[in-house]
Write a structure and sequence with these properties.
- The protein has 26 helices and four strands.
- It has helices at residues 2-25, 30-56, 81-104, 113-130, 136-154, 161-189, 197-204, 209-227, 236-242, 245-255, 257-271, 276-299, 303-330, 334-369, 380-383, 385-398, 405-423, 426-458, 465-468, 475-493, 495-509, 523-542, 568-578, 580-583, 608-627, 636-653; strands at residues 62-70, 73-79, 585-592, 595-605.
- Helix 3 packs antiparallel against helix 20 (475-493) and helix 13 runs parallel beside helix 17.
- The longest helix is centred in the middle third of the chain and has 36 residues, at 334-369.
- The mean pLDDT is 87.
- Residues 135-423 form the NADH:quinone oxidoreductase/Mrp antiporter transmembrane domain.
- GO terms for molecular function: oxidoreductase activity.
- Its main location: membrane.
- This is Hydrogenase-4 component B.
C-alpha cells in the first residue's frame, strides 16, 4: 500500500508539473492552453486524492527517503494521517476549482493564460509536497515556492494599481512571517543532530521550557501571519479580492490552512506539551481574530472583501480549538484536548468547503454583473436561482446554522469551551466563561452579515441594468458550486462519521489523545426526513399549497423602486453605531449652499491596526532608511570595506 500511495503521489506531482509546462508550448492558442493546464490539473487532483486515501489508511506513519540534495538537506517524505488529511482537502477542492476554471478563466483570454496555468499548477504542486516533506530545509523551500507562486497569481491582473499594491503587501507580510519560521527552525536546529523532523522531535524532549517557548512564539508569529490572525491579517482582505476568484477560493480554503498544518506539525506533534499560557495566547488570538474579522466583514459592501474578512473570522475559530487543546494538554486532560483538536481539524475541513463555495459563487456573480460592489446587485434570485441557492447554503453553513457543517464543528468547539470553564482554575475561570460567549457573539454577527449579503444581493429589485439582465452561468460553473453545497449538508449530517476518522489523526499524533467518536450511519434520520419531506410534497400538491401567486408588493400606495431598498451600508449601520468605539467610522456631510437639498454623506473606516501599528512602523522605516542613505555612497571600495568588516565579525563570532 505504501508503494502504491507513493507512486500515486509521485504521478500527481508529475502531472502538476506537466500542467505548468505544457501550456507554455501552446501559449498562442489560449483556449487550448487553458484546457491543457486544467485537464492536467484535474488528473493530478484525482491522483493526489487517491494517494491521500492510501496514506490515510496506513496503520503507522512511514518515512520515505527519495534523494539527498546536500548534507542535512534531504527530499524525505513522511506519510501519516495528518499529512493525508490536508492532502485530501487540497486535492478535492482543487478538482472542483479546476472544473470551475475551465469556464471562469475564459473571461481572461486576453491575458496570458499559459502563465496562469504555469503558476497555478506549480502553486498547488508546492502545497502538495509541503504537506508530506519531513525535513526543515525542504519544508522552507516549498513554503517559499508556495508564497512566490501565489504572489504571481494574486498579481495576475497587474495592470491595476490596487492589484500591484495588494501583491506588495502580500509578499511583504508572507516574508515577514517566513523570517520567524526560519528563526524558530534554526534555533531548534542548534539542539538537534539534524534538520529532519524525527531528529528535531527527539531534541525537543531534552530542551528547556524556555527554549521551547522561544520556538513556540516564533512559530506563532510566522504561521499566524500566513493564517491571517489579528493583527497580522492586513494582507488578507487586500490580496484575496485582487486575485481571480478561483485563486481566491484556493487561497482562502486551503493555502491559509498550511499555517494550521504547520502549527499541528511543529508545535503539537513535535514540540509536545507546553505550559498553559501557550494555549491561552492562542485562544485569546482566536477570539480576537474571530470577533474583529466578522465585525469588519459586516461593514463591507465588496463581496470578495467581505468573504476575506470572514476567513480571518474562521481562522480565529480554528485557533480557538487549537488553543483549547493546548490548554487541556497542559492540564493533562488529554481526552478533552483530543476533542478540541478534532473540532479544530473538522472546522479546517468545513471551512475549506463552504468558503470555496462562497468564493466561487461570488466570482460568478461579479463576472456577470461586472463589479464586486453589492450595492449594484439586487433581485439576482430571479435570473440566477441556482447560484442563489448555492450561495444561500454556503451562507447558512458559515453562519453555523444546523444541521450544516459549520454548525457541526463550531458546536464541538463550543462544547470544549464549556469543558474548560468547568476545569479552569480560579484565575482562568472568568476567561473560560467569556470564551463561549465570544463564540456565540461571533456566530450571531456572522449570521447578520450573511443575511445582509444574501438579501442585498439576491432579493428585492435590481439596482443596476447589469443585475436586471443577469443570466445563470453554464454547467461548468454551476456543477462545482452544487457539489460543494451538497457537501455542506452532507458533512453536517455525517458529522459523527467524519469525527470518527479525524480522531484517528489526533490519536496518531499522541497516543494519549484517545477519544471515542461513535461511527453512525444516521440511516434512521435520513429515512424519517425522507418520509416527512415526501409527505409534505404530496400534501401540498393535493391541497394546492404550492400554487404560485403573483401580486404587487404592498407599498402604502406608493410605487416601489430600487432606491427605496435597504443597501449593504444601511443594513450594517446599526451595528456600525453600536461598535463605533472600536470601528471609529469617519463621517463627512457636505451641504451645497446653492442647493440646500443637495446633501452628500460619506463614511469610511480606518482600522486601528493600520493607524496605530502599521503606519508608525512604516514611518519609522522610511525615516531610518533616509538617515542611513549615506552608507550607499556609490563607491565600490566602500562596499568592499563593508564586506571585509562583515567577514571579520563573522570569523570572530564563530571562531
Amino acid at each position: 500500500m505504501i508503494d502504491l500511495g507513493f507512486i500515486l503521489f509521485y504521478l500527481s506531482v508529475g502531472f502538476y508539473i506537466l500542467g505548468a509546462i505544457v501550456p507554455l508550448a501552446f501559449s498562442k492558442n489560449k483556449t487550448l492552453s487553458l484546457k491543457i493546464g486544467s485537464y492536467f490539473g484535474l488528473t493530478a487532483s484525482v491522483l493526489g486524492f487517491m494517494s491521500g486515501v492510501f496514506i490515510f489508511l496506513l496503520p503507522n506513519p512511514i518515512l520515505f527517503n527519495l534523494l539527498v540534495i546536500a548534507p542535512n538537506i534531504e527530499l524525505q517524505f513522511y506519510f501519516d494521517k495528518l499529512s493525508a488529511f490536508f492532502l485530501l482537502i487540497l486535492s478535492t477542492i482543487n478538482f472542483l476549482i479546476m472544473i470551475y476554471s475551465l469556464e471562469y478563466m475564459k473571461s481572461y483570454l486576453n491575458d496570458n493564460i499559459a502563465k496562469f496555468s504555469f503558476f497555478y499548477n506549480l502553486f498547488i504542486c508546492s502545497m502538495s509536497v509541503l504537506f508530506l516533506v519531513s525535513n526543515s530545509i525542504t519544508f522552507l523551500i516549498f513554503w517559499e515556492l508556495m508564497s512566490i507562486f501565489s504572489y504571481f497569481l494574486v498579481t495576475f491582473e497587474y495592470r491595476h494599481q490596487h492589484v500591484r499594491k495588494a501583491g506588495f503587501f502580500y509578499i511583504f507580510m508572507t516574508h515577514f512571517g517566513t523570517v520567524f519560521i526560519i528563526s524558530g527552525l534554526l534555533y531548534w536546529g542548534t539542539f538537534s543532530n539534524g534538520l529532519n523532523f524525527d531528529a528535531m522531535k527527539i531534541a525537543a524532549m531534552h530542551m528547556s521550557m524556555f527554549s521551547k517557548s522561544i520556538i513556540f512564539l516564533c512559530f506563532l508569529i510566522g504561521f499566524g501571519t500566513k493564517a491571517g490572525i489579528v493583527p497580522l491579517h492586513i494582507w488578507l482582505p487586500m490580496a484575496h479580492p485582487s486575485a481571480p476568484s478561483n485563486v481566491s477560493a484556493m487561497m482562502s480554503s486551503v493555502m491559509i490552512k498550511t499555517a494550521i498544518y504547520g502549527i499541528f506539525r511543529f508545535v503539537i506533534d513535535m514540540l509536545g506539551v507546553g505550559p498553559i499560557w501557550w494555549g491561552s495566547i492562542i485562544l485569546f488570538i482566536g477570539i480576537a481574530s474571530s470577533l474583529i474579522g466578522v465585525l469588519y466583514a459586516l461593514m463591507e459592501h465588496d463581496i470578495k472583501k467581505l468573504l476575506a474578512y470572514h476567513s480571518v473570522e474562521n481562522i480565529g475559530i480554528i485557533f480557538m480549538g487549537v488553543g483549547l487543546g493546548v490548554i487541556f494538554s497542559s492540564m493533562s486532560l488529554y481526552t478533552f484536548a483530543a476533542i478540541a483538536y478534532c473540532a479544530s481539524l473538522f472546522h479546517v475541513l468545513n471551512h475549506a468547503v463552504f468558503k470555496s463555495l462562497l468564493f466561487l459563487s461570488a466570482g460568478s456573480i461579479s463576472k456577470i454583473i461586472g463589479t464586486r460592489d453589492m450595492e449594484h446587485y439586487g433581485g439576482l434570485i430571479k435570473n440566477m436561482p441556482k447560484t442563489a441557492l448555492s450561495f444561500l447554503i454556503g451562507s447558512l453553513a458559515i453562519s453555523a446554522i444546523p444541521p450544516l457543517n459549520g454548525f457541526a464543528s463550531e458546536y464541538q468547539i463550543y462544547i470544549s469551551m464549556l469543558n474548560l470553564s468547568y476545569f479552569a482554575h480560579s484565575y482562568w475561570k472568568l476567561f473560560a466563561i467569556l470564551s463561549p460567549v465570544a463564540l456565540i457573539l461571533t456566530g450571531a454577527l456572522a449570521a447578520a452579515c450573511f443575511v445582509k449579503a444574501f438579501s442585498v444581493s439576491f432579493l428585492a429589485l435590481p439596482r443596476s441594468s447589469e443585475a436586471k439582465n443577469a443570466k445563470e452561468p453554464n454547467l461548468m460553473i454551476i456543477l462545482p458550486e452544487a457539489i460543494l453545497a451538497f457537501s455542506c449538508i452532507l458533512l453536517g449530517l455525517l458529522a459523527s462519521n467524519i469525527l470518527f476518522y479525524i480522531s484517528k489523526i489526533v490519536l496518531q499524533i499522541d497516543s494519549n489523545f484517545n477519544v471515542v467518536y461513535f461511527q453512525t450511519t444516521n440511516l434512521l434520520f435520513f429515512i424519517i426526513f425522507g418520509i416527512f419531506f415526501s409527505l409534505s410534497i404530496i400534501f401540498g400538491k393535493i391541497f394546492g399549497l404550492f400554487e404560485i401567486r403573483k401580486v404587487p408588493t404592498w407599498g402604502c400606495g406608493i410605487n416601489l423602486n430600487s432606491k427605496m431598498e435597504y443597501t449593504a451600508a444601511s443594513f450594517s449601520q446599526p451595528i456600525r453605531r453600536t461598535y463605533s468605539f472600536f470601528l471609529r467610522p469617519n463621517r463627512k456631510i457636505t451641504v451645497n449652499p446653492s442647493k440646500p437639498l443637495d446633501i452628500l454623506f460619506s463614511e469610511d473606516l480606518k482600522p486601528p491596526f493600520t493607524t496605530y501599528l502599521y503606519s508608525p512602523i512604516r514611518k519609522f522605516i522610511l525615516n531610518f532608511s533616509i538617515k542611513m542613505r549615506f552608507l550607499q555612497s556609490g563607491y565600490v571600495h566602500f562596499y568592499l570595506a563593508y564586506i571585509f568588516i562583515t567577514l571579520v565579525v563573522l570569523l570572530l563570532w564563530y571562531r
